[in-house]
Specification:
Blueprint lengths: L16 H20 L28 E4 L5 E3 L2 E4 L11 H13 L2 E3 L7 E3 L3 E5 L5 H11 L9 E3 L13
């Protein structure tokens, strides 16, 4: 019987390249997935609320979100729809209005009242305004939503909870 003997002095090499490739691919995959859940949220300092419900949206559903910074700049999906330093004149809210009209057309519709044939958007628009944003900018979004062509009647305002509470940003 011929048994091969292993020489302990012989070095064995293992190719780690495939394992390193797999690890890097997993890291990239998880970095992309975690970023997608927050891509519509801008960095704004939300006002604090004592009593608020946690915001737990379905990540599979489309959700209209408008971010307003402390200067009044309105950002939707990383695109500036209104900037008070740039947009002036009669049609200064034209881009925001166009986006709201498209959002209203995309939303599921519900009757205006029981038995009514008039259908209006039934989903809310989330407004995330910085706590130091002048209210006139939030008021302008509300006015644009109430326009005859758009008619978005449901709005949500984002707030944060006090330090130490078990809820995070709403």
């Amino acid at each position: 019987m011929n048994l091969a003997k292993h020489d302990a002095n012989t070095d064995m090499e293992m190719d780690m390249t495939p394992m390193i490739d797999v690890v890097f691919l997993l890291i990239i995959f998880f970095m992309i997935i975690t970023d997608l859940t927050q891509q519509e949220l801008e960095d704004v300092d939300l006002p604090t609320a004592e009593h608020a419900k946690p915001d737990q949206p379905d990540p599979e559903e489309w959700r209209p979100i408008i971010n307003v910074d402390y200067r009044g700049k309105m950002v939707i999906k990383k695109k500036v729809q209104y900037d008070p330093d740039i947009n002036q004149g009669k049609n200064k809210y034209a881009e925001l209005r166009t986006w709201l009209l498209q959002a209203a057309q995309r939303m599921e519709k519900e009757p205006l009242s029981e038995g009514s044939a008039t259908m209006i958007p039934g989903e809310p628009v989330l407004i995330r305004a910085d706590m130091s944003t002048p209210f006139r900018y939030v008021q302008e979004i509300m006015a644009q939503c109430g326009d005859q062509a758009i008619q978005i009647w449901k709005l949500q305002l984002a707030v944060s909870t006090p330090e130490g509470a078990d809820d995070t940003n709403q």
